[in-house]
Each structure stands twice: as C-alpha cells, then as structure tokens.
Design goal:
By secondary structure, this protein is of the alpha/beta class. 28% of the residues lie in helices and 11% in strands. The protein has a three-stranded parallel sheet, with helices on both faces.
C-alpha cells in the first residue's frame, strides 16, 4: 500500500497489507505527502428541510458517536436516535431502532430528541464444552 496508490518514494518498496503493522507504517509514511485538501470540512449550512432522523450506535466501530452528535447539532431539524449497543447498521441489529426508522419512513415523524434504544442482550451461539471428568 502506498500513498493514494502512487509509486513508492525512492528507496522504499511497494508493500501490500499483509499485517496491520505494515499498513499502519505506510499510512504514517503518507503524512504530509499529499497536497492540502481541496474540500476541507466546514460547518454544515442546512436550512429548510423536513425533520431528519439520524441513527447511530453509541459504540459504532465505523462512525463515531461524537461525529454523529456533532452533525445532528448542526442540522436544526435533525433528531439523533441513539442505539446504546455495539453496531454499525442499527436498522439490521436493533428492533427498537428498526421500529423508529420504519415509523419515520411511513409518517415522517421522528422520535423525541434524546431518544435512546437499549442494547440488545448478548447472544451466545455455542454450547459450553462438556465438563472434563
């Protein structure tokens, strides 16, 4: 892996992602390599929209809860529905979120601000091993 798929800098070999250490070293090696972004992040300026339902898990491993709350705060008509468990796609992983999302799709009504869905109980799929005698 190299910076943006470009040729490796002189004296460095092209590396594939065989381990996280190798990939991490390549990412760190890219710092300052690319020119400054042409589209830096700025505050959202969203006005005049109907109610928007946003969903996010408190322990999402892809999109952070902090980022979700930041976006929701910048959109006046947004309501953030929080799943207090671990999931990325709350619709598929949580019946409480799924119910609120489907209701929103049918009626365009959002749940009250600050609504949280409880985490689903842990599911075990394997039987414990038999006791040794």
């Amino acid at each position: 892996m190299t910076c943006s798929g470009s040729r490796p800098p002189p004296g460095r070999r092209r590396r594939t992602c065989g381990s996280t250490r190798g990939a991490w070293n390549d990412v760190i090696g890219c710092q300052g390599y690319l020119p400054q972004s042409r589209n830096p992040q700025r505050p959202y300026r969203i006005k005049g929209t109907p109610p928007i339902l946003m969903t996010n898990s408190r322990h999402d491993f892809v999109t952070t809860y902090r980022a979700a709350t930041n976006v929701a705060r910048q959109i006046p008509t947004a309501t953030l529905l929080t799943y207090d468990g671990v999931a990325h796609v709350t619709y598929l992983n949580d019946p409480c979120s799924r119910t609120a999302i489907e209701r929103n799709l049918r009626t365009l009504r959002t749940p009250p601000h600050g609504t949280h869905c409880p985490p689903a109980p842990a599911v075990t799929t394997a039987e414990p091993p038999p006791a040794r005698q």
